[in-house]
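Try it yourself: sequence plus PMH, in.
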Amino acid sequence: MENKINYRPTKAVIDLQAIHQNIVSLRQHLQPNVGIIAVVKANAYGHGDIEVANTAINAGATMLAVATPDEAVHMREHFKYIDILVLGATPSSFIPYASKENITLTVFSEEWMEQAKQYLPLSNQVKLHLKIDSGMGRIGVTTQEELVMLYEAIQNSEHFIVDGIFTHFATADEEDNGYFEKQVCLFKELLNALPEKPRLVHVANTATTLVKEPSLQYDAVRFGISMYGLLPSPYVGELLPFPLKPAFSLETQLVHVKKLKAGQSVGYGANFTAEQDCFIGTIPIGYADGMIRRLSGQEVLIGGGRAQIVGRICMDQSMILMKEAYNIGERVLLIGRQQEDEITIDDWASKLETINYEIPCVITGRVPRMYKN
Ligand code: PMH
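Structure, out:
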């Protein structure tokens, strides 16, 4: 795919080959005939949904999963034939589009089925996946009665098809199996209450697929974080049967270099003051790019070594403390590998006391995603 021209040197570089290789490795871990649902919601966790979906399909994904109907529309505009599942709630006004463009929707309430009726004359058929809330507490039916009533309501309508059923686990990435087992039990109990097993049963996210009972792979698994080369948790990392390669890096270049004399300060609040003469570099990335102010103090890679972000991060620019006066245009890696040294998404996540999932998602749309094949 063509990379568009950007004049600012700040960019996220996405290694599509790494994503391809990760999926190939993950695929080898699957039971025979288990499909791969590539979770490309939220712009493929910030990596770029079209390019990631294209890579995932080439690597063997059998379905794409998105969070919202709008994401499904975006996907369908680029991929005509692959099955697309909307994992989240969809307003019933989306039914005509879903029917026309073969988008599979998640259903979890009879109320929705009722509302949907007004759109039925417009549409032919819509494929639905039943969502069971087995303990995540987000969306889904929680009892056998609810599930069976919903199932029957769908079966009784000529406009809907029960194509699948799924649930999502809250603690699959943790060592303690207690809560996980409870969720599995409830899911199985509800699944068994149906007169017939839907075509596609899927419950496993990355962690479930990699470290839990293989029978939980059912008909398909939903891979998100692992495709991107990241681990759902350190615990899953300990048990990981093969290496994953991170696909996301973030870089920019020096746009200004100056000598700061001892006692001089930089940034809003003037809260960094040089203790001795030093070199300060300015980089064109700031909190409006998703590099939020709490990342002040984080290190970057430059010229074969490291430098620290000093002073408050501004909206569009930040300053780094350098050992020497590098040239304007010198490459600055915020996330990625430089020779033997690496700053990872997990480093940012621990600095921000959050999870790795969040980091590429919050790098804003102002940062172009460039693709390396
Ligand atoms: N299936 C559903 C329903 C999900 O919500 C997610 C991730 C996945 C599969 C993929 O999980 P994985 O990335 O661990 O493989 N959803 C989210 C979320 O809502 N917040 O963080 C991750």
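One thing you can check immediately is this: DSSP finds twelve helices and 20 strands in the chain.
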